[in-house]
Design goal:
The chain has 349 residues and is an alpha+beta fold. It folds into 3 domains: 30-107, TATA-Binding Protein; 122-186, no CATH class; 192-348, Ribonuclease H-like superfamily/Ribonuclease H (Nucleotidyltransferase, domain 5), CATH 3.30.420. Helix content is 33%, strand content 20%. It has 9 helices and 13 strands. It has helices at residues 30-44, 82-95, 124-133, 155-162, 171-186, 247-271, 287-294, 306-317, 342-348; strands at 48-49, 56-61, 64-71, 74-79, 106-107, 110-114, 118-122, 192-195, 203-210, 221-228, 231-239, 280-284, 321-322. The strands form 3 sheets. The chain has a 5-stranded mixed beta sheet with strand order 11-10-9-12-13. It has a 4-stranded antiparallel beta sheet with strand order 1-2-3-4, covered by helices on one side. Residues 9-147 form the Reverse transcriptase Ty1/copia-type domain. It holds the Pfam family RVT_2. InterPro entries: DNA/RNA_pol_sf, RVT_2. It comes from Vitis vinifera. This is Retrovirus-related Pol polyprotein from transposon RE1.
């Protein structure tokens, strides 16, 4: 680091810098040093770092499991081994200065509540703080984040659209952001439910694509929703990196994106002790894309996507994934094509 202000040195020493013997808070190396220190402590206490998520630590003994997940210096500890959980809390209190906040209620802007149905997740407080900070607390709420003529009522897709213009925003982009905030006010009560007593071996993913939907560069947008035991766990809406020549190609690339996510979820569940013997169910409403995945013969029109084709074909042959048929009307919405009503969208949540 540079010499501190007011530190007097001779002219010969003015080009010197200070050598840090200990990482200081606020430097870019600090997070890595802190996480390395924390990882060493967890391993010393008998915990194993997950290969699927390096912020997840697990300990299995006597048929029970205890887990800890960390984000910077915020931690969540859970498991069915009460004695181990208390021992871990005592150990961490000795190693680090920490505070036990009790049962999980609020974490990284997410509010957690429990009921007889299961666990509810919501970001009501985060959304209210955002509206207050932007001066939109008294705005008129709307039912969709972006005009229905252009897109679906999907917040992930709406945010992915406006974020593409952060480097050079205009008035129309600011208006779009204001509309998203107005939608947030209308959707404060929406929550995600993680139901109890589900089959954790059941993994499903719904994929969809908007072919050439971006007017600026005619790239497509693909997305997915993944479910474990019927519970929605991850979702994504992302503009594709290349221009696709057909709707089938756009859908096919979206299938690969969703499949990669479910393969990661499968490994994560295995770390937690849920060894899935059921194939992943990948839903795509494009029949031609599904036929290409099953077809062992490569044609000229698909040779430029052969890596994706061989990737899906390999998983199909190994019985890791299956492609059940689904109608467009009941497939999950990603963006603008195959318009779906607001009523249907609300029922999905």
């Amino acid at each position: 680091m540079d010499l501190l202000p007011g530190y007097m040195v001779s002219e010969k020493q003015c080009q010197k810098v200070c050598k840090l013997k200990k990482s200081l808070y606020g430097l870019k190396q600090s997070p890595r040093v802190w996480f390395g220190r924390f990882t060493m402590s967890m391993r010393a206490f008998g915990y194993r770092q997950s290969n699927s998520d390096h912020t997840l630590f697990l300990k299995k003994q006597h048929g029970k499991i205890n887990t800890l997940i960390v984000y910077v210096d915020d931690m969540v500890v859970t498991g069915n081994d009460l004695e181990e959980r208390k021992a871990l809390q005592n150990y961490l209190s000795r190693e680090f200065e920490m505070k036990d906040l009790g049962y999980l209620k609020y974490f990284l802007g997410i509010e957690v509540s429990r009921s007889s149905e299961g666990i509810f997740l919501t970001q009501r407080k985060y959304a209210l703080d955002l509206l207050q900070e932007t001066g939109m607390s008294g705005c008129q709420p709307v039912n969709t984040p972006i005009e229905e003529a252009h897109t679906r009522p999907d917040l992930a897709y709406a945010l992915s659209v406006v974020s593409q213009y952060m480097h050079n925003p205009g008035e129309q982009h600011m208006n779009a952001v204001m509309r998203i905030l107005r939608y947030l006010k209308n959707a404060l009560g929406k929550r995600i439910l993680f139901a109890k007593n589900v089959n954790h071996q059941s993994i499903e993913v719904y994929t969809n694509a908007d072919w050439a939907g971006t007017m600026d560069d005619r790239r497509s947008t693909s997305g997915y929703f993944t479910f474990v035991g019927g519970n929605l766990v991850t979702w994504k809406s992302k503009k594709q990196n290349v221009v696709t020549r057909s709707n089938t190609e756009a859908e096919f690339r979206g299938m690969v994106l969703g499949l990669c996510e479910t393969l990661w979820l499968r490994l994560l569940l295995q770390d937690l002790g849920y060894l899935s013997r059921q194939p992943i169910r990948l839903f795509c409403d494009n029949k031609v894309a599904c036929d290409i995945a099953h077809n062992p013969v490569q044609h000229d029109r698909t040779k430029h996507v052969e890596v994706d084709r061989f990737f899906i074909k390999e998983k199909l042959d190994d019985k890791i994934v299956e492609l059940p048929k689904i109608r467009s009307k009941i497939n999950w919405p990603i963006s603008s094509p195959k318009q779906q009503s607001q009523v249907e969208y609300s029922q999905n949540f």
